[in-house]
Amino acid sequence: MSTTAVDQTPSVEMSRESPDHVRISLAAAMVLGVRPGRFYRDVRLHCINLLLTYADGCNANCAYCGLSRRRAGGYGERSFIRVDWPTLPTDEVVARMERYSAAVARVCVSMVSHRRAYEDTVDIIRRIHSRVDAPISALIAANLFDRDRLTEFRQLGVDTIGVGLDATSETAFERTRGRRARGPLSWRQYWQTIEEARQIFGPFKVNAHVMVGIGETDRQFVDVIARLQEMEVNAYLFSFYPEVDSPMARRRRPSLRRFRRLQLAKYLLQRGCLGVGDVVYDEAGRIHRLDVLPSSMEQAIASGEPFLTGGCAGKDGSLACTRPFGSYRPGEPFRDFPFQPTGEDVARVRRELGW
After folding, report:
1. What is the CATH number of domain 14-254?
2. What is the value of pTM for the model shown?
3. Which residue ranges make up each domain of the chain?
């Protein structure tokens, strides 16, 4: 994504906190006419991504996150997935969503771990629901939820729940998000929240964000994808990308070969073409081969679908949340495609898979 003007978000003051203010992704700000700019390769975003904001920030301490409380600088100066998030009055954002309704197929409200975040998210959802005719997703802070709160979100009109599980092993979770990272989050609680949300919202109306490259093995990743699929929970795949000044700023991104193979394995698992026992690993625990019908493999790769951005759909069922360039920057190879890959894109993916 390139812009003709990018503002530096000022430090958040007490008067610019949620629920009366929210941060909005730069891509969403462009869609709503708040910021000028042009999307690389004419990507389209139809989901308005909002983020709660507080002067004292997020209480979690995830080692890879730009909003981590240990990251240098004031909270309002910190990026999230390396993207600027301007702070705006909530009512102005809602009014703009109403004005640009033809471009808004979904709204996603992302929470942070904060003592006021639950009540403030309820307030913001009510404001959106009163004026905007679009489905609403909530990317929740799982440590703030129980069954009653999930039920209240359902009654408010939220149709999809997202949970940022991120880690696909308990060890990686504890090291990057839990006690070993001096954070308040619990692997067990996150899974409990996913299970309860699935019971309340129904099949494939809950999604778990999972990340490649924060300390998991390929086998652990595949096992978690299979577990989520059995639960009828969507898995949205992300590639680790280091945030400047975060505790994991010097960690290398996963190789494209590894990421491509996990994308493909995930896709085939979710479509019933592959079982966990059909994944062959090398001595280092990396995916070496997928024992799947050659025709199924070829059809999946040629379609380009395994390599698309995973995100929530709009009313018409098409992808609304493309999260443009959260995993890369223009000029780099696409890690996930926020549009249908071209034949040239697919040819490159084949080379990256290395099979």
Report:
1. 3.20.20.70
2. 0.92
3. 14-254
